[in-house]
Amino acid sequence: MKLTITAATGRLGTHVVSEALRHFQKDEIRLAVRNPQKAAAYAEQGLEVVKADYLQPETLVPAFHNTEILIYIPSITHPSIVRVPETENVITAAERAKVKHVIFVGFFADQDTNPFHMAPFFGYTNRRFACSSLSYTIIKNAMYTDPLIPYLPELQTMGKLIYPVPHGTISFISRAESAAAIIKAARDSHYLEKTYTLTQERNYTMPELADILTAVGGKKIAFSPVSMAAFAQKYDTPKGFGIVLASLYEAAERGLLNTVTDDFRLITGRPAKDLRTVLTEDYARIRESG
């Protein structure tokens, strides 16, 4: 068995590697990363680390050689068109390397009518796998819980949650729990060749999210939405990320990020932790680490 994990030093990738180490032998795991120096700590632990740059296709076939399960975690660059060559290179290389199965880790904002500026990439990649010669599984993640605790100090300073989502609801999953489901699928062929959407057991309105953040952090945070334009301006960057971020919450307001499934329970055999539990644990962990 050879499990190859791409983007292994990224935010999700580190969780996937950690989970893989619980269930696979070290010699069964290969980490395919753009910059092997960033994975030096893994190499010191005895894991195989190889260079795999999505935009340098000549690095991909050797990185995928003898792979039974390839976990493809895409980059987070934008706009979507920048990542389309990435998908082409990965799929072509996986076909040439005769990878037995690919698990593509996507995002649930991939509907045809979704205004999220990164949605075209996920929609394209889903369809591109369908016309490839590969055996594949698509695992779509709901909104990650992980950025909420680092965002909490800013929210506490403002005293309000300003997401421009007065009527919509959002479903969440943590990266750690996503990783647990991904590795469980990699371990058990019963869960392969299907499409899953990983969410918690329910979705949340923004007033409910504000109340949870209040309880977790111990300081009052009220829900006070701003306009999409104001939100985009507040979080803008030289690369225009504010507009991209605002488009995500526009999708939420349109009811396109509220999907709830039992797929996590189906794969892992247990329910996903609820939002308050996840955030409470994350908050405690950060406080303990100083």
* CATH hierarchy, class of the domain at 3-143 and 172-200 and 259-273: Alpha Beta
The run of helices and strands is: EHEHEHEHEHEEHEEEHEEHEHHHH
The total of beta strands comes to 13
CATH overall fold name of the domain at 3-143 and 172-200 and 259-273? Rossmann fold
Helix content: 40-55%
Uncertain runs with pLDDT below 50, 5 residues or more? none
State the end-to-end CA separation.
40 Å
Number of helices: 12
Radius of gyration: 19 Å
Mean pLDDT: 96
The order of strands across the largest sheet is 3-2-1-4-5-6-11
- Sheet having the most strands: 7 strands, parallel
What does this structure look like?
The protein contains 12 helices and 13 strands. The mean pLDDT is 96. It has a 7-stranded parallel sheet, with helices on both faces. It has a two-stranded parallel sheet with strand order 7-10. It has helices at 11-23, 40-44, 60-64, 80-96, 119-130, 148-158, 175-187, 206-217, 228-234, 241-253, 263-268, 275-289; strands spanning 3-6, 29-33, 48-51, 69-72, 101-107, 136-141, 143-144, 160-161, 169-170, 172-173, 195-198, 204-205, 222-223. The protein has a domain at 3-143 and 172-200 and 259-273: NAD(P)-binding Rossmann-like Domain (Rossmann fold), CATH 3.40.50. The chain is 44% helix and 16% strand. Strand 5, helix 5 (119-130) and strand 6 form a beta-alpha-beta unit. By secondary structure, the protein is of the alpha/beta class.
